[in-house]
Structure formats: C-alpha cells, structure tokens
Amino acid sequence: MDYKDDNLDELLDYIDPAALTYQEWCGVGMALKDSGYDCSLWDSWSQRDTARYHSGECEKKWRSFAGSEHPVTAGTIVHMALENGYRPQSAPKESRALSWDDYIGEDYAITGPCQTQALPVKPLFAQWNPVKEISTYLSTLFQAEENVGYVVHSWKNQDGKYLPDAGCCDRTAGKLLEDLTYCENDLGAVFGDYDPNIGAWIRFNPLDGKGGKNENVTDFRYALVESDGIPIEQQNGIMRDLQLPIACLVYSGGKSLHAIVRVEAGNAKEYRERVAFLYQICDKNGLQVDRACKNPSRLSRMPGVVRGEKKQYLVAVNIGMSSWDEWKDYIDSVTDDLPEFENMAEIWENMPELSPPLIENVLRQGHKMLLAGPSKAGKSFALIELCIAMAEGRKWMGWQCTKGKVLYVNLELDKASCDHRIHDVYTTLQIPPVNIRNIEVWHLRGVTEPMDKLAPKLIRRAKKQNFIAVIIDPIYKVITGDENSADQMAHFCNQFDKVCTQLGCAVIYCHHHSKGAQGGKRSMDRASGSGVFARDPDALIDMTELELTDEILKQETNTAICEACIEKLRQHAPAVLADAAPDELLSHVESLKLCRDNLPPAVYEGFLGEIEAVKRTVRQRTAWRLDGTLREFPKFEPKNLWFRYPIHVEDTVGVLKDLQAESEMPPHQRGAKRGGEGKRRTEKAKNADKRAELLNTFDACNIDGQVTVKDMAEYLGVEEKTIRNRIKRCDDFTVENSIITKKKAE
C-alpha cells in the first residue's frame, strides 16, 4: 500500500500514546523521522500520555534513530490509525459547506484527465529573457522588504540524483530586483552561477533570513501544487478548470508544472489544513499532487534558468480566483452534494421502506429524540433507564424498545458516579444484567468540546460498533454557539444529523427547560434556547412536575408502609401473611399491628427505624407527566410517572391522573396557587413568631420556678384566655390548675 497521500501529523490524532507499548511508541518516532518530520511533532504528540511523558526524552531518543537496513516507515503509523478508526479518503460528506479537514467525496469532481481540455503550455513571454522571468516572479510573490530563499548549487547523492544544497536566504526581494536591473541579463552575477544541466531553485514563501526551514517561514502565503503523473497539457487544463488561485505558474523544465497557489494562512496549523484541503481537491480531479511539496519552505523551480536542453519559465501569473476565500466559495458553489430532484411517479409503485421502530410508537431507528424537563426531574436517570431498556430489549416508560448496542455519552458525572448510577438503576429495576455488554459508556467530563468538534471524533470511534442509539447527556455541555440563535442552533442540531447518517443510529439527548414558569406553554416551547431545539428532533418527550396533594402523599405513605410490613413478615413470620385478612394488609395501622404482635421484639424495634426511613423516602418522591410531540407517529396520551429515586415508575393505578401540572393550570389558578403558597408561608412564619414569644415570656416569668397563666398574661398585656388559646396551639407547654409547665425535650 502506498501511504504517500496521508499526512502523518493528522493521522496521529487517531493514535493514543498512552495505549502503546514502549516499542510501539518508539516505532512512531522512527516512522516520523524516516518520513522527514521534525522531532517536535513526536514530542507534542507524546505529551498526551501525561503519566509516562518526560521532557527531553523524545529528543534524546530521536538522535538515536540512525536508520537501518529495514527502517520503520510511515506505513506503521497508517496501520495504527486504521486500527483506531481512520478511513483513508472514503468517508461520505454531509450536506453543508466544507470544513478544512473534511474529506472530499465522490461528488466533488469538477474535472479530470478525461473531461478537461488539454491546454498547450506556452511561455508567458514570447522572447526569452531570464531577468524578466525571475523579476516578474519576485515582484508577484514578495514584498520588497521580505527575504527570499534560493539555491543555485547542488550535490550528487549515492543514487546519482542531484539535490539542492542549503542555498541563500539573507537577501530581500527588493535588493535582488535592484541587482537584476544592472546585471545585463547575467543571472549568475546576482544569484551565483548555476549548473545549466541541473537548473536552480527558489522558495516561494518569505523567510526570516536565518535559514530555509519551516520554522524560518514568516508568512504562510503560498503552497506548491506539483504533479507529474499526467502530461503537462492536462495538468495545465485541470489547474485552470479548478480555478486555482495561482500567483505564478512555472514550467519546471521536466515533466511538471509548478503552481504557486495562494493559501493565505494565518499560521502553520491553518497552513496544513488549507494545503490538505487543496491537495484533496486536486487529487479528486485527477491531479495527483506530490505530498512532499506540502511544506511551506519547499523549494520550487526558479524561472529564467536553463535545465538541460529545456528552459524553466513562467507560464502565467495571477490566474484563477484572486484569493483563497474566493476560490473556497467557488468550490463550495460548484461541488454541492445536494440530492437531485425526485419524481414521485418513479417511486409510486415501489416506495422505500420506513426505518423500523426503536422505541415503539415514539422513535424510529436513525432518528433523533429530545428529552426535556426541569432540574430534579431525573432526566439522566430516565436516559440510563432507556439505555438499559434498549440493551435488554425491555420497556421504557411503558414503550417497548428494540434490543441492541447503545452508547451513553456522559458529559456531566465523574466516572465512578456514572458507573454506580447504571448499576443502581439495574438493581432497583430488578433486571438481570444479561446483556450488559450492549452498553458502552464514553466518559467525557472535563475533556468535552463543542459538538461540531466532538461529532467527527464520536463517529470515528463508533464507526464499527453497530450502535442502535447514541445517548448524549446533557447537551448544554456541548452546545456550539448561542443557544438562543436560530441559525447557530440549526448548525448545532445538524451535528446530530451527521451522527445519525454516518452511524445509522438514533441520537437521543436531553436539555433543560427555560427559566421561569412554564405555565401555558406547549411542550415544544419549554426547552431552553431557540425553538430549533424542540422543532428539530423527530420526537420530543417533555417532563412536567405534578403538584402532589396531602391526600395522595398520605395514601402513598400508607402503601409504602404496608409493602414494608408485608416484606418483613415474609422474612420472619410468613405464616401470618397467609392468615391475615386483606384489609389488614391494606392499612398501615393494621399492618404495623401485625408486625408488632408477630415479630421478635428486637426485630420490631429495628423495623420501626426502617418505617421512618420509608416515610422520608415517600416525602422525597416527585410525580411527573410525560407529554410529547412526534413526527412519525400519532400523539400519545400523556403518561404519569413517579420518580422514586433512582428510577421512574409508571402510574398504572391512576393515582396521578387527576392531578394538574402547573403548565396545565389556567392563569387564574396558577396565580391563586402561588398566592396560596405565599399565604401558607406567611402563616407559618407568624406561628413561629408566636411560639418564640411564648418561650421567651415563660423564661422571663420563671423566677421562682413556677409560672402561672396570670403571670404570662400580665407580662404580655393580654387576657388570660388568650394565653390559654396560644398554649393549646403550641406543643411546648401544659396547663394544670393555671400552672404552666414546660415540656421536656424528647
């Protein structure tokens, strides 16, 4: 396999140094050095292994790589990258504008050797004039004050090939142009004499005057496109068909044209990205670019000199698009991958199959679902329950789920907490973890990034896992841009489409409600941020809290105590259960009496503590209503749920059916509710104040160890009857024969 088309620095993103053995790590370094890369790349990549990285170790080891008869080559890195999800030039594109690191798919061919018109290669100037050639080249590419690198001398290697030496880099373009003015067409007087059998070279990006390496480049302005696999006439035709923003097009005197293309990058990283994009476009259109030309300090053939029997000359200057941005816009416009129109008559008798359901009557495979709700609704637990339901092929919230592999992307919890939650939900649901291997968890707390950057990495890692669903919890951690901006959120939501399309799975995610009261809002309008959130997914499940009444809480407490009693009797006195009347097992008073009469005293005393814990648990329960908006299925009847930490339990009895959520209350009722709550809070505060007043008054009157009703009435300036009424409402005192006694604290 030929690996020349792969950029090894990009492939390193697919390889985790922490997962490699020492020998494998050394192999990566050897391959980079063999491929002409600098040690700094190996060092920066190695720093990702924080546990084993030691400063200076890479450089020391690098010097020991002296080469061998059987060197470690780029193929080693490519092989590692392939094992970790890299796919060389085969991934499909998405329906949007291209990113710099996107792959150019099949539909991005504009031209090619078979489609292009072969154009004759003619000198820009009819008369051969070396000074005019190089002067035009210099004035087109450089500012007067910029240093220019050039080479006129070469040396012969062991294979008999002539290679350029280090050359010169300390003269400015302005100085060279000035000297050329007075050289009388003698280039040797300006640049030095060159071997006409070999030719001469020049660097197309400005330098700092201290050397001719990548680190000496001062402006990442141009890139070199060179291809010698097809005739130069076809090279010329393809370059012009592609409208490449070429500043100078030079005939090399050999088998290729050298196109100095404007990339106008702001830094080295952007330069690499733009060059990779440029080369992909060229490759896709039949111009197979030599990857050795990608360095910004690369030498190109100098126009105006002789090479053997041919001349190196300018073919054109300033052709194609005028800038990188203009060319990029052009490429986007002529290479869209939007589908063609489809006539319904052609498919009427052979309609495409619908995706099978993933969640029965709610969500199809390959579609998107949003779970929205306020804080403390247990949304994360609900999503974990969904993971388990799909892994085991069980029901979720009463809906049957398809069995298969699911990926849970944990963005919020630390690893231990998340793992325990999954374990606790399994245990509480009493589901045997028969298919626990169907659940994969990706822990990203503390290392997450925006969704537009996360999506490609997720796809790469999940490509061969055959997940039926990817669950992302929660999305506020990965939101790209302003959540209240419709266009930015449209771009954000498109990332979910990308995951769905390329992995063939559903994407399920949760988001919180907007701030403030949700009363009167439709389910699709409660999620925080732009309305795009609610309108984009194929299914929206919304959770709203129900206002529990004292009567229902009392009923739930009774039921919970009865269940606890039955379980305790089953453990210690099973015969009692068989003889007990049904009514006895439905009343917590009677159930506790059965326990008191039939359990060993020590067991019963300990059980009373358990009962108090049961009561606290019931008081902590919340009730919720599931409503939804579905694109593919009819609207379902709202579902009522108990959130009994850590799981949701569907209310199949109908206890909650008559309760109202705040969102369902008419405005006047919501106002009355809030007013009633305020009144209750006020009454509670008043009662607390009166109790404190009584306690303080008692202490003030308690001089000789005895306090009477008359004493406290006189102290407060009220009637004795008032004192007696207040004491009745206060559980801190008793009155006997007008003597007030303070109860002892229990």
Structure write-up:
The protein is an alpha+beta fold and 746 residues long. The chain folds into five domains: 8-88; 108-334, DNA primase, PRIM domain (Alpha-Beta Complex); 357-545, Rossmann fold (3-Layer(aba) Sandwich); 549-620, no CATH class; 678-742, Winged helix-like DNA-binding domain superfamily/Winged helix DNA-binding domain (Arc Repressor Mutant, subunit A). The chain is 38% helix and 17% strand. The protein has 24 helices and 27 strands. The strands form seven sheets. A nine-stranded mixed sheet has the order 18-17-19-20-14-21-22-23-24, sandwiched between helices. The chain has a five-stranded antiparallel sheet with strand order 6-8-7-11-10. Strand 7 and strand 8 (257-262) form a beta hairpin. Helix 2 (22-34) crosses helix 5, helix 6 (130-141) packs antiparallel against helix 7 and helix 22 (667-701) packs across helix 23 (709-716).
